[in-house]
Amino acid sequence: MESGPFSLTAEVKCVPGEQTPDQQVFLLLDCTSVTDLSSGCDFCAVRLSFDTREVRVESQKRNATTQTLFAQPGCALLRPQSYVTVLVEFHGETMNLSLSGVSVALNLPLNRSRSGETTNVGIAVYGKSRCYVRRFRLAALPKDAVPEVEQSTCCVRVVPGPESAVGTTASEEMDLAVTIERDIVCQDLKVRFEDIGGLEDAKRAINEAVILPLLMPEFFVGLRKPWKGVLLFGPPGTGKTMLAKAVASCTENITFFNCSSATLTSKWRGESEKLLRALFQTARARVPSILFFDEIDSLLSQRGGAAEHEASRRFKSEFLIHMDGLLSETGDQQGHLFVLATSNAPWDLDEALRRRLEKRIYIPLPEEAARVRMLEHFLKDIVLAEDVDLPLVASQLERYSGADVQLVCREASMSPMRRLVDGLTPAELVQLRSEGVWVCRDGCVQPSVSHNDTRRYVEWQKEFGSQ
Ligand SMILES: Nc1ncnc2c1ncn2[C@@H]1O[C@H](COP(=O)(O)OP(=O)(O)OP(=O)(O)O)[C@@H](O)[C@H]1O
Ligand SMILES: [Mg+2]
Questions:
Q1: Most exposed among 62, 67, 202, 252, judged by the fewest C-beta atoms under 10 Å?
Q2: Residues of the chain with pLDDT > 70: what percent?
């Protein structure tokens, strides 16, 4: 690494080694030898002890003892078996350190002047600890980059969000970051695009608006800069949540924050805006990332209603401020941050939010061909009677949503049992298992979306939706 300020970002996780409890990782920022960290070597490193939950910054000059420049014990973000995102901005004489978007140390004096010689930067483990690293990124900072605050001593502080009025203490911020990592960051939602029947136009629009910008950010710059907010709207049960979750599963590299209104409101009543702010902060630290808000109308309905609670109004304002922060960001070479939201009552959304969710994709009731594919998909493990004509069944299911079609299939798969089970002996019941079932629209499941509802979505789509 050439001399000069740089930033190092890495997601690291540590697990105990065989027969040793050690879980220690070093982020080497300036090191003249990589063979070992013995007294002969000259280094500066961030030491993360996942076993004792301590963060330290250490410096050692050749033939001198190791100096601890900074130590923070009881760091809740260091949890065995969990990834933590570390960001270091190394200026040679001072450094900034943050963990999962929470600023831990700012302007920490290091008393090291880099002589210009090439030194090593990287990750090392202690003893038999085992470390997993993903998304390692090293980037030069502008030569004239100066630390954010002129200060001669190190401080532990929380970086304020954009124009936010919410005050949060460092330990609160750390707790929130832990909650986010534990409850909201999703690894695998197990929904694939192949599982979703039909909706070809919506899949194409999502691919262009969300997936491609994440996979090839360099192409989506300038006029082609990606949409920062994408809304999927349409009648209930049409696959909006499924589509959003499928996005999470199709690219490995992104962090998907599943922010359901239940997590954001019930558990954190009164604290929601703090959690929201921490969410955006963490998402920024882990780009490329998607913040997914399911049923966003329940979180951000129109402001100013008589029954509106003060906390809810504050939450909405905080959300809009963060969305503005996203929209005003110019090109982001490091990766993108999106808000992806779903709603089945888009007309209830706050107008200011509607404007910020720039791309609005209509997820309609499935067409006949899509209904055939859904029937095939839902009934793939069921033995059907020979005269079952799925296209004919699909043609009878007009106005049925995906969820309704699934319900029809469930009801139908139960029907032979209903007809035959009455009064049978256990032996006769066993005999039933080899018989097929047949599907019909026998009237026991009605469509859940009325003509009027559909008309309302189409009208909203004409007025505010994207093509
Ligand atoms: N296009 C589809 N392909 C396959 N299954 C579907 C489809 N649409 C809906 N389903 C079925 O319906 C269920 C509900 O879908 P989902 O939760 O995505 O609906 P939604 O549009 O988010 O509804 P809501 O607006 O009520 O939240 C899914 O679990 C799935 O089984
Ligand atoms: Mg849903």
A1: 252
A2: 78
Q: Does 211 lie in the same domain as 101?
A: no
63-94 pLDDT, tens digit per residue, is: 778 889 998 888 878 877 788 889 999 888 88
346 CB near ligand 1 (under 6 Å): no
- The rounded distance, in Å, linking the Cα atoms of 41 and 261 is 52
Nearest ligand to residue 366 Cα: 1
pLDDT at 238: 93
Question: In what order do the strands lie in the sheet containing 130-140?
Answer: 102-109, 94-99, 84-90, 6-15, 130-140
Candidate from 240, 242, 249 with most ligand 1 atoms within 8 A of CB, to mutate: 242
Q: Is residue 460 part of a domain?
A: no
* Domain count along the chain: 3
More confident residue, 365 or 252: 365
* Ligand that lies nearest to the alpha carbon of residue 374, given by its number in the listed order: 1
Cβ–ligand 1 distance for 197 under 6 Å, the answer: yes
Query: Is there a single domain that holds both residue 262 and residue 225?
Result: yes
Confidence at residue 117, expressed as pLDDT on a 0 to 100 scale: 62
> How high does pLDDT run on average in the chain?
78
Ligand 1 pocket check for 198: Cβ under 6 Å:
yes
Cβ of residue 29 lying under 6 Å from some atom of ligand 1: no
Q: Is 238 in the pocket of ligand 1 (CB under 6 A)?
A: yes
Grouping H, G, I as helix, E, B as strand and the rest as coil, residue 351 is helix
Bigger pLDDT: 303 vs 271: 271
pLDDT of residue 335: 62
453 assigned to some structural domain: no
461 in any annotated domain:
no
| Cα three-residue angle 95-100-104, rounded to 5 degrees | 40
Give helix then strand counts, H and E, for the chain: 14, 16
Domain shared by 382 and 355, yes or no: no
Q: In terms of residue numbers, what domain contains 26?
A: 6-157
